[in-house]
Amino acid sequence: xxxxxxxxxxxxxxxxxxxxxxxxxxxxxxxxxxxxxxxxxxxxxxxxxxxxxxxxxxxxxxxxxxxxxxxxxxxxxxxxxxxxxxxxxxxxxxxxxxxxxxxxxxxxxxxxxxxxxxxxxxxxxxxxxxxxxxxxxxxxxxxxxxxxxxxxxxxxxxxxxxxxxxxxxxxxxxxxxxxxxxxxxxxxxxxxxxxxxxxxxxxxxxxxxxxxxxxxxxxxxxxxxxxxxxxxxxxxxxxxxxxxxxxxxxxxxxxxxxxxxxxxxxxxxxxxxxxxxxxxxxxxxxxxxxxxxxxxxxxxxxxxxxxxxxxxxxxxxxxxxxxxxxxxxxxxxxxxxxxxxxxxx
Length: 345
What we know:
ABC transporter involved in vitamin B12 uptake, BtuC, two-stranded antiparallel ribbon, 75% helix, membrane, cell membrane
């Protein structure tokens, strides 16, 4: 009965996400009917696409497929990535306030991506594939440094993790700011990228980040039971057969991978990894077999809705996406701090 309820919740989240995707693509400076939007998207799906034919205008198809759909999909993928990373960090550190923005992960990724932008580094498949790699390296290095600094006697203090993480994040942000000042000709672009947003999203970005997030999600689901063991504490998890130290590094790599991919295309967007795991945990419980897919769906849903709000609230201008998420996330963070203080009292 409990399992059915959890699966039902996941199903409802999936349906809500699908509806939000179609509505988000339909809304904009030029409104396109939702049903027409759904048919245009469905007409490009493999196998079933030929079943959907319509009399929509060519301009409507161009707007949806070339402008709006890539943007909405990037918002979806970034939301999924940040929610997944937040779920991993919270389970790994047994810290309900662990978030990519608070423990240096997002800022490390931003520094790595900024370095790639600043020096014009291109390896592999080109600059677009270079930026996620540098962002991943920066994210992993930042989290590793924060983790090693706060680890004492085989334990990581929650308070120390937050304090060191915030301090180190500020240090990394100062380096990024220095690079921005030095590179005056690119200052405007880097500044708005760091504020967080998916306004310039395109299909190349979608294809660039999908492999990172897909691999990260699959590996996280594979280790979901081990994350459940970690919630019991490292000592207890080790007694039950888990190689805790090795497992932590695997999960740090996975979380850094998805954060790097997200930050490389959207800049720093805070609070997604903090809020969504908490909300889903209230609905499905702490079992990571349900918490991980639920957080993926909820993270994608939240950021798609937030991006839609960012586009419409000041149309024809738009708000940076990071400002919208902070508007909802900051009060939520204060609520968590107050709740934690009451529990400790």
